[in-house]
Amino acid sequence: MITGTTEAGFNYSIAEELLESYDFLEALSKVEKSVLYLPDLVEFVFKDESKAFLNSMRNEHGLVTKEDVVGHYENYFENKELKILILAKMVATDEDALICDLAETYQIYDYRRLPLKMVAVFSFGLREDSRIKMKMNDIGVPFETLLVAGIQDKLNVLIWQQTKDGMNGRNYPASMLALLTKSQQKSKTSDLVGFESSEDFLREREKLLRKEDD
User: Fold this and answer.
1) What pairs with residue 13 in β-bridges?
2) Which of 41, 117, 131, 182 is the most buried (most CB within 10 A)?
């Protein structure tokens, strides 16, 4: 049994085997996909103590904010179960990419047959140019490839400068580096949604959860 006290003064006790189960990993990864699953994670981890956990964080208006709950659970897992938290982020980002990386690197073809903590360690140790880590870092091209492309661009310019075109400032060589980085550019849009009442929030939550389950 794991026991401790949160920053808000809540004394908790969590079954250790619960934190080593794939049900726990799935609950964590769902929260990484959508914060609407956060109440399910709290109930899964704290069981009958979930209401007491939430009550310990109520502000002067009697409300519990999403930021407080997320902050508490991230603070706990970053201190105690950092590798499992990162594994949950990987599963939420692209489980297929993670499966490919585990198979290629460790010849693990069904990671759920292994103990959760062992898989978390293996996943944490994947190379920075693995599929899943590149996707999590929003990198489309490995750093080594970008470095070689930059060197090629410099070499092309040096050669071009020795030609008639270079002396006359014509037909500047195309940049391979620019071509590679341009493909990574993505437009960013805001995904903030407001609700006029708690009932509106709960209705939207149920709608999104049904969509996720489908």
Assistant:
1) 3
2) 41
